[in-house]
UniProtKB/TrEMBL annotation:
InterPro entries: Glyco_trans_2-like, Glycosyltransf_2, Nucleotide-diphossugar_trans. Residues 6-127 form the Glycosyltransferase 2-like domain. It comes from the Bacteria. Pfam families: Glycos_transf_2 (PF00535). Belongs to the glycosyltransferase 2 family. This is Glycosyltransferase 2-like domain-containing protein. Keywords: Glycosyltransferase, Transferase. It comes from Pontibacter flavimaris. CDD domains: Glyco_tranf_GTA_type (cd00761). GO terms for molecular function: glycosyltransferase activity.
């Protein structure tokens, strides 16, 4: 593994999105002393994504090394796993196939990771760009990998950043592999909108003793095509995203609430249930965001559904208890291999 940065683009049927994404990468202002490469992982696409990406990159005339990998097993987590195995450099930047990196992104990300050896993951600031003018209610949504991830640059307060535009220290991934870490979430899979794999990886890296950082200077555009600008799309995103909670909540309770045993796990899980239940009741009574219920009924409905989906997943107590024990076991193995 050499010093440098590998840019990873995992894609499923991204032929229409990849040319713009690669164009923004091709014009990166990278210091000549910094080694970098671009890897596109075709995750079982059916639309010639690999051929389109190769042709687009050639047309841009960028001297950086470029490769296309193929992962037949559908799931963003599997695509990322292959990319991490193949990446040549010690820092890995995950750029979604609809992310447009600012010209200084790669160089700044490299410098920040070099300057902060305790950081296992570094996240940036995504700004939504819509193919067509979105309805007013879309500007109030929070689950589209955009916006600030902390009140200021520095350590992320809740040990997670979204996967779009994030940079990972490859040595940490190798440490997780030695400890036997296997992600429980497959993340996006084909047309499914399941999510949470990026957060699970952040939590595992935090368990390994590394910090999760955010820097607001790392800017990128997150392109929203027309088919995503709808309430039905966002409702599906909320529903399938909530299905990751039986895995993510055990991590959160261990890392953010310092739960180390089943008694505290159960108490804090009850608090989580009460929080979502009270919020759902407040929404039903119209007590959250005064005036929104009448002025933005679609937003109000989506907020209701979001809390309902989260409450519904909490019925999986047995799974969460099992996953919490696996989190504790992973932490023990990481501690053992580090000593």
């Amino acid at each position: 593994m050499s010093t440098g940065i590998s840019i990873i683009i995992c894609t499923y049927n991204g032929a229409t999105r990849l040319p713009d994404t690669l164009r923004h990468i091709a014009v990166q202002q990278v210091c000549p002393k910094v080694c970098w490469e671009v890897l596109v992982v075709d995750n079982a696409s059916t639309d010639q994504s690999a051929a389109v990406a190769t042709a687009a990159w050639r047309s841009y005339g960028c001297p950086a090394s470029f490769r296309v990998l193929y992962q037949p097993q559908k799931g963003l987590a599997y695509a990322r796993e292959l990319a991490l195995e193949e990446a040549a450099y010690d820092f890995v930047l995950f750029c979604d196939d609809d992310n447009w990196l600012s010209p200084s992104y790669v160089n700044l990300a490299y410098d920040l990771m070099q300057e902060t050896p305790t950081a296992g993951v570094l996240g940036g600031y995504g700004e939504l760009v819509f193919e067509k003018d979105p309805p007013v209610w879309m500007h109030n949504l929070t689950a589209l990998a955009s916006g600030p991830q902390a009140s200021a640059s520095g350590k992320a307060p809740y040990n997670a950043v979204y996967g779009a535009g994030c940079v990972i220290r490859k040595a940490v991934i190798q440490k997780l592999a030695v400890a036997g870490f296997k992600p429980l979430l497959s993340d996006r899979k084909g047309k499914q909108l399941s999510a949470g794999g990026d957060y699970e990886l952040c939590y595992a890296i935090a368990l390994a003793g590394y910090e999760i950082w955010y820097d607001e200077r790392l800017r990128f555009k997150h392109f929203m095509p027309q088919h995503r600008i709808s309430a039905s799309y966002y409702q599906q995103l909320l529903k399938e995203g909530a299905e990751s909670l039986p895995v993510l909540i055990p991590y959160r309770l261990r890392l953010n609430q310092n739960c180390r045993g089943m008694v505290y796990f159960n108490l804090n899980l009850l608090r989580v249930f009460v929080f979502y239940f009270r919020r759902l009741v407040w929404l039903l009574l119209g007590k959250v965001a005064p005036g929104k219920r009448n002025k933005e009924p679609i937003l109000h409905k989506l907020m209701l559904l979001s809390n309902f989906y989260k409450l519904y997943t909490l019925r999986n107590y047995t799974s969460m208890k099992y996953n919490f024990k696996k989190v504790l076991e992973l932490e023990r193995r990481l501690t053992r291999y580090s000593s």
